[in-house]
Structures are given as C-alpha cells and as structure tokens.
Amino acid sequence: MCGIAGVYNQKNGVPDHIILRRMLHLLHHRGPDEFGIYLSTGIGLAHARLSIIDLSTGQQPMCNEDGTLWITFNGEIFNYIELREDLVSRGHQFSTMSDTEVILHLYEEKRSGALEDLNGQFAFAIWDENRKELFLARDRMGIRPLFYARIGSDLVFGSEVKAIFAHPGISRKIDSVALDDIFTFWLPLSPKTTFDGIYEVPPAHSLTINEHGERLARYWDLPEEADPPGLHDQAYYAEALRELMIDSTRLQLRSDVPVGAYLSGGLDSSVIASLIRHYTSSPLRTFSIRFEDPEFDEGDKQKIMSDYLETEHSDFRCGYGDIAGAFAKVIWHTETPILRTAPVPLYLLSKLVRENSYKVVLTGEGADEILAGYDLFKEAKVRRFMEASPESRLRPLLLNKLYPYLKNSPTRSAAYAKVFFDAPVSPFSADYHSHAPRWNMTSMIKAFYSRDLREEVASSNAPERVARFFLFGEGAKRMDPLTWSQEIEIKTLLPSYLLSSQGDRMLMGNSVEGRFPFLDHRVVEFAMRIPPNIRMKGLTEKYILRKSMEGLLPREIKQMIKQPYRAPDAKSFLGIAGGELAQEMLSPDCISRKGYFDPIHTERLVKKCRKSSATGFKDNMAFIGILSTQILDQLFIRDFSPGEEIQVDRIRFVGRQKPV
Amino acid sequence: MDLASEIRNFIVENFLFGDSTAQLGEDESLLQKGLIDSTGILEVVSFIEEKFGITVQDDELVPDNLDSIGAIANYVMRKQGVKT
User: Fold this and answer.
1) Distance CA A541, CA A371 (A)
2) Most exposed: A14, A529, A536, A584, by fewest CB within 10 Å?
3) Distance separating alpha carbons of residues A65 and A93, to the nearest angstrom
4) Euclidean distance between CA atoms A335 and A331, whole angstroms
C-alpha cells in the first residue's frame, strides 16, 4: 500500500522534480518506507512505498523488460501468483516477485483489457514511452483513491488531493455545488470532489490521456439482474457464498508481513475473523474500538467473539476528549466535510494497529451493501408494504421492528412513525424512494447556509444532479426495488464516504492497509445475484450470509440484529477539554469570515446542542457538518502550504532524466 | 404571552434556529414542513411537560396532538382543563 502521484505534460516538457518531491512529502503517511521518482519527457511519476509484498525488490516506479512501460501503483493484486504463472507460461520474463510487475506484463499484452483479469484493490498509472500515453485506473468498488486535475498543459494526479495542491498552478477553492451534494447525499457525487476543478477517476473506470485528448471508460459494473426466485435453493446460495468467502479471505491474507483483523462486535467482521480461524493457518490478531459512553460501546460482543476464536486481542477505549482531540487531523485526511464523527475512532483504531507493528488488517466492510444489511433497506421494504395498503392499521406496526437500539427512536410511537415515514413531500423522484428519507433529512442542514452560498447553489439542484449521476432510464426500473436501492448505496455512500472517509484515509493516515474480503468482485457479483426475496428474508437482513455461517459463529453473534456503528457527535466538542478548536471555528466571527454558513443560526444551534441532551440526528449532523467544513477551509484553503520536499538522497531516481 | 405564542417561540428557537423569516402557519404540519425529525418530537414533549406541568401519555403521542402549533396548543389546553 502506498501513495502515488505524477504530472503529465501534453507538450512533452519534463515535469519539475521539486513538485514531485513535494507531492511525496504530502503523501508520506501512505508510504513511509521508500520513495521513487521516474522522470522523462512528458511525464513524472512518483511513489511512496509501504512495503507489504516482495519487500526486497518491489521498488517503484517499475518498468517492463525494455523500459517502454513504467508504473506507479497503490494497492494489491490478490491473484498475482496465478496471473504470473500464466504470463510466464506465455513467455514473459519477470525480474521481481511483486504484484506490480504482473500488472505491467498484463498491460503489455492486453492494454486496458488487463483490468478485467485483476482481482484486487488498486489505483495505478502506467506511462507508455512509445505512445507517450498515460493510463490511469482504479479498482471496481473504489477502495483505493485516485484524484486528478488539469492545469494548462499539465495533468496532475495523486492518491490524495493534498498532493495535487503541491502543484503551484492549481488554485484551491471549495466547490459550492459539491458542498450542496454533501449536505444532501453525505458526499460529492463522483467524479466531483469537494474542491473546485479536482476530480476523481471513478471506481471501475480508467482514464487514458495522450496528445490527442483523453478518454474515460468503465470496465466493470454490477450484474444487471438477480437470479429468478427458485433457480437454486437457499442451501445452494449459502454454501456457494461460504466457499467464495473462504477463497477471497485466503487470497487477501497473501502478504509478506503479518495480517490482523478488526472485530467490531457485529456480524460482518465476526464472519471474517471466523473464516481466518477456521480455514487458514494464519495467526489471528484482532483489534477493536470501545466507547466510554455505554450507548455506543459494543465491548461485550467483541469479547464473545475474541474468546470464541481465542484471538490475541487489543482494544482502544474512545472517550469524548479523544474525538475532539483528533478531529482536525481526521479532516486533514478525509479532505472533505463529514456529517458525523464516526471516522475519528477508526483513525484512532488504526493508530493502535500501527503501534502493535501491524501494517495490514482485514475488515467486514461491504457486507451490508452487497448482502442487504442496512436498516435503510428494511425501512424501504416496510414503507413499500405500508404504501401498498395505506388504510391498514396493522402494517405500520412493523415499523416497531426497526431501530430497536436507538435511545430516541422514530418508531417509539407507531402513529408518529407512520407519519414520519410518509413525510415530507420529497423533491426526489420515485426512483429514489428508498433513499429519500435520508436525503430529505440531511437536506435540512441547508437551512444553515449563508446567503452567499444559497445564491451560489441556486441554479443547480440535488434531485437533478443525482438523476444525472445515475443516468438511468429503463434499466433501473427493470431491477427489483431492493437490488436497485443496494446499487444506489454501492455507487454513492460506499466508495465516496465509507471506503474513503471511514476507510482508506483513516487507515492510511497511520500507514495501515485495509483489506475487505466481502468486496472481492466475485463475491459482489454473486451476492447481487441472490434472489432478493432470500437476500433479505422477511425483515431478516443478510439472511443468506447468516445461513452460510452455520456452525462457525457463536449463537449470540449469528442471531444478532444489525446495529450500525456510531460514535458520539456534538457532545464530543462541548464543555470538555480539547473542544477549544471547535469553539473557535464555530464562533460567529469565524463563521462570518469563512462565509459558508449563517452566523446567527449556527450560534443558536451550538447553544441548543450545549444545553440539550436530547439532540437528534439533524442537529448533530448540522453541527458536525458545519464544524468540519470550517476546519477543512482552515486546513486546505487558508493555511495550506506545500511544505518541504522529500530530500533527494532519500529518493530512488529512475529513467533518463535525473535532477542535477 | 398566550400559549400558542409560547409554543411558536419554542419551535422557532429550536427548529428554525431563530429564522423568524420562515413562514409557519398555525396549522401547518411540522413533519411535512421537514422541521422536526424523530427526536424533535421528543423535544416538543419535554418542552410542554416542563413548561405547562402536564404529562404526555404514550397513547397521546400522536400527530393529531402534536404536529402543528395549533394542535399542540389545543392539546395542552385540554390537558390543563382535565387537571384543574
């Protein structure tokens, strides 16, 4: 796992090595072990390495046999051993044992078609010296990041936006429409990012650039349809899922350093840990977050699992002060406003992993999306059921089955719940029935916009933007409602919030690589083909997964109802040590100066959060959203400085051009 | 100040964050208007319980009683009438 960066010049200039060295400095948390730069006419490629596979010869940027192709690569190709054997049998000469070299030889042979053979989590750039062509590509689910921007005749790219800001030509500005996306969907709709003029290569896409222009192409997508009900029986799906999960977990344990696992106390991470214990010979080292506040703590369930699997276990106990104390650092890594503090404990957890000398962890991320685990899917099902018979007095009672873990549940009163889920009149089309309640509630934060921000976003609206993002016509409607709502989740929240702000960035902030066996594309394709009536059976979420784990999990864990991972929000910043930054950033003066929000409304919100303990989702989201936007502006717009460069003697320079 | 005004002040202060320019009719649904989320209802309940010395029973926790300024005022008056 690593950080990558580069500059392409369409007019065949040689990029300035000082810019590349600054980029490496800004990315060094992603790869503190080694640095490399390739310079040639038209291109500069940079690489910061966290050594995990082929520790002795895997240095990058790396070239093929004749030096015509150069690569800088972040991530892992899990099936590299099998791919290498094939390539060798077809006559390719290898000089390392790395997965990186496998991509190069495969690209020689198949060009962009190589992507279809890769099983992994990756972002890379390949430079073709003969064609003078740059090829950027990103994994199917969006696990590893890749951003880019154009400035004059340069195209600048990097694993994180901060590296792109090292280029002196790039201006730094928060994009108002992206902010409006975040205050609706929790994320900027890809390929936009929070910053004006900075884009991402979307998941499952490649971008090819040469002197004639550029081409963005999708190379993979979710299956279009699920199997018809009854094609196979439940036992078949459960068994096949278990076999696939065993295989993906085995593949993802490939590493030349020891691998750990997260135990959240929930079903998904328990599945991964159990598969490691039962089907591999890897030693099992596990890590957890606990909370001082019992409302959020899941320590009892973590203990059940670590005892059951007899793992060597460590946990980090998170208090309110810890969240306030690490918040600004977390925003430096998320590079985007967030609406809840949940990323912070994950950042502190990866720190614990690193302190225990582990560089790689497996987690259960992705299971809820592909196997239908979220409350949102259940809630949508109940709402559809209620709407089919609006006069029924009994159907709304089903709502009581939702959210049993919430202290302030919307379903405490059935009569209220019915109206709550009917309300309010939604601006989103019926195609977004499942997501409209979340997006409507989040949109309430817009009441805090300053007059300027309100005017800047007036000409664009979120319902049209999301419709454009999905660009669907008949295709989506052919799909059953559950599969379609999962697809919405898999293409928005999963890559652009969970795998980034709560995933890659929180892990790499402490130089730890996350691996996600549920997101092996074979597992994803299989899961999305399970007939929807058994993917979620009645209101039992992840039904087939539970069935597939018969005998491999303690009963308490297997029967457990999904409880989302949450952390304390506004309460973390009010009236405790470490909250000073929040106080300063939310002061009317600072709010006015930055200009995104209304100072009077914000002051009242802070006052309300301070005095009331019954603060709801909406107020908490507004509080964290405003605070993180303020801090983001401070870190990336006001105070940003490209800083120093990595010293020349720490960098391995390759290629014809060397700095003098 | 009459009952309805006190309730209106509370709603404006707590759910509109003092944005008194937003028009809010006496009988407008707080849910339909998107002003109140799930915990908002509980905030309304604890406000009227403290302020007017009444106790909201579980079966009274229905939109007919609590979903507009007018409805809340009527509900509180009914409860106070019963008490005295």
Assistant:
1) 8
2) A584
3) 7
4) 6
Interface touch A413/B29, C-beta < 8 Å? no
pLDDT over 90 (residue A167): yes
Within 8 A by CB and 6+ apart from A321, the residues are A572, A576, A577, A578
**Closest-CA residue to A209 (of A111, A114, A149, A136):** A136
The interface predicted TM-score of the complex, written ipTM, equals 0.70
Sign of CA dihedral A5, A9, A14, A18: negative
Q: Per the structure block, which two tokens stand in for A205?
A: 């896409």
CA distance A236 to A243: 11
Q: What is the pLDDT of residues B27-75, one digit of tens each?
A: 888 877 777 766 778 788 888 988 898 988 877 888 888 889 999 999 9
Local structure of A327: helix, strand or coil: helix
Segments of A234-334 assigned E as strands: 259-262, 285-291, 312-318
CA distance A37 to A354: 26
For the annotated catalytic residues of A, the residue numbers are 2
CB within 8 Å of A455: residues ≥ 6 apart = none
Q: Which residue of A has its CA nearest to B63?
A: A416
* Cβ-Cβ contacts under 8 Å, A608 against chain B: 14, 17
Chain A residues with beta carbon closer than 8 angstroms to that of B43: 612, 614, 616
CA dist A452 → A455, A589, A594, A598 (Å): 5, 16, 11, 9
In the DSSP assignment, the letter for residue A157 is: E
**In sequence order, what DSSP letters do the residues of A282-305 get, joined into one string?**
---EEEEEEESSTTT--HHHHHHH
For the stretch A394-441, pLDDT in tens is: 777 677 666 665 555 555 566 666 666 665 568 898 889 899 989 988
Q: Is the peptide bond before A203 cis (omega within 30 degrees of 0)?
A: no
Q: How far apart are CA B54 and CA B7, in angstroms?
A: 14
> Which two tokens mark A604?
């009242």
The closest alpha carbon to A156, from A188, A196, A199, A194, belongs to A199
Nearest CB to A604; choose among B13, B39, B62: B13
Q: Which residues contact A591 (CB under 8 A, 6 or more apart)?
A: A597, A598, A599, A602, A603, A626, A630
